[in-house]
Design brief:
This protein has helices spanning about 15-25, 35-45, 60-70, 90-95, 110-165, 175-205, 215-235, 250-270, 300-305, 325-335, and strands at about 5-10, 30-35, 50-55, 80-85, 100-105, 210-215, 235-240, 250, 275-280, 285-290, 340-345, 350-355. It has a five-stranded parallel β-sheet, with helices on both faces. A five-stranded mixed β-sheet has the order 7-9-10-12-11. About 50% of the residues lie in helices and about 15% in strands.
Length: about 350
């Protein structure tokens, strides 16, 4: 069984000698660095499972070492336990704000050191296992969804051919036609769900999309084209702003947000739907984009469930897979914003999402 590796960064030889002897004896592989810069270099090359870090060191102190390590992708997940004679609350808060996992106050007891080290290594292993399982499940969902699309598309195409050829070449009664139409409709619903799963999977598999200034007018133009048939079907009215503030984002994802919000407004708004679309520049460097509908409004309980995957609140009014708003939430969070809704019973709903302003870049 592989030994866990600990790194001690401390400039006092006696402290290092005692800790190294004890930790070696209980089964750890122990590395030593006598000052901050050396500790950073050792961490980057050896990638220890946990770091025991002294605060008071000449040159670079422990706070700066912690800040440097937590700012780098390859070392930011390594738990750091500060070792210090400074027991005041201010120093502890500073350490936790920089990303430290824990504190041990000098002079320390060996049993306490061992208990804290084991606890944080266990927590890290559990987090790594969860991340691994999440990636495996995501890959599985993506593969299954992708593999299901082809046979379902074949079913839809065959049903289309059959319905187009009837009654010229196919002697089938009305009941048979209705059954084919049910098959066709069910396959289309399943394709819609699969596409939503692929979109959701795609967002989680591409967490670091490059943010660029958005031409929101161009994005909205594409959304309007995609929704034109639906707008006509519902006899809806949509009021658009004349101009848009410039936000940062990833255009394909932002288009997906608008498609979800607007199609929901058409399906669940008033009869006929009347939607108002707008944008506000906030004081915190963000821009809030929104869609207001003339629907029946939502209770606080319903609002709390809205962004949960596979949740559908209006099952009688329109069909769906319940993934749209969870996709919106994941997209917006990856883009550095937030998604939400403001609503009251009888007052309609306002669905919004925020993105960073270009003026704040």
């Amino acid at each position: 069984m592989k030994k866990e590796t600990l790194l001690i960064i401390d400039d006092i030889p006696n402290n290092v000698k005692v800790l190294r002897s004890f930790l070696n004896r209980v089964g750890f592989n122990v590395l030593i660095a006598e000052e901050g810069e050396e500790g950073i270099q050792v961490t980057e090359h050896a990638h220890p499972d946990l770091i025991l870090l002294d605060i008071m060191m000449p040159g670079m102190d422990g706070f700066e070492v912690c800040q440097r390590l937590k700012s780098q992708d390859n070392t930011k997940d390594i738990p750091i336990i500060f070792m210090t004679a400074l027991s005041n609350t201010v120093n502890k808060i500073k350490g936790f704000e920089l990303g430290a996992a824990d504190y041990i106050t000098k002079p320390f007891q060996q049993e306490e050191v061992l208990a804290r080290v084991k606890a944080h290594i266990t927590i890290r292993k559990q987090q790594e296992q969860l991340q691994k399982r999440h990636k495996e499940l995501d890959a599985f969902a993506h593969t299954v969804a992708h593999d299901l699309k082809n046979p379902l598309c074949a079913i839809i195409n065959l049903a289309d051919i059959f319905l187009q050829s009837y009654p010229v070449n196919t002697p089938v009664d009305d009941d048979g036609i209705k059954k084919i139409e049910v098959i066709h409709k069910a396959a289309q619903r399943t394709i819609s769900t699969i596409q939503a799963l692929l979109t959701l999977s795609g967002v989680s598999r591409q967490p670091d999309a490059v943010l660029q200034p958005l031409d929101m007018s161009l994005i909205i133009e594409q959304v309007q084209q995609n929704l034109s048939a639906m707008v006509e079907e519902y006899q809806a009215q949509i009021d658009w702003p004349q101009t848009w503030p410039v936000a940062q984002g990833y255009a394909p994802w932002v288009e997906e947000i608008w498609m979800n919000y607007l199609s929901n407004g058409l399906k669940y708004g008033g009869q006929p739907p009347h939607l108002t679309v707008g944008a506000d520049t906030l004081n915190n460097g963000m821009i809030r984009f929104w869609v207001r509908d003339n629907g029946p409004g939502l209770s606080q309980k319903a609002i709390s469930l809205l962004f949960t995957p596979f949740t559908r609140l209006h099952q009688k009014r329109a069909e769906g897979h319940g993934l749209g708003l969870s996709i919106v939430q994941q997209i917006v969070e990856h883009l550095g914003g937030e998604a939400g809704v403001e609503s009251e019973i009888g007052q309609g709903s306002l669905f919004y999402f925020t993105l960073p302003s270009c003026d704040n870049s």
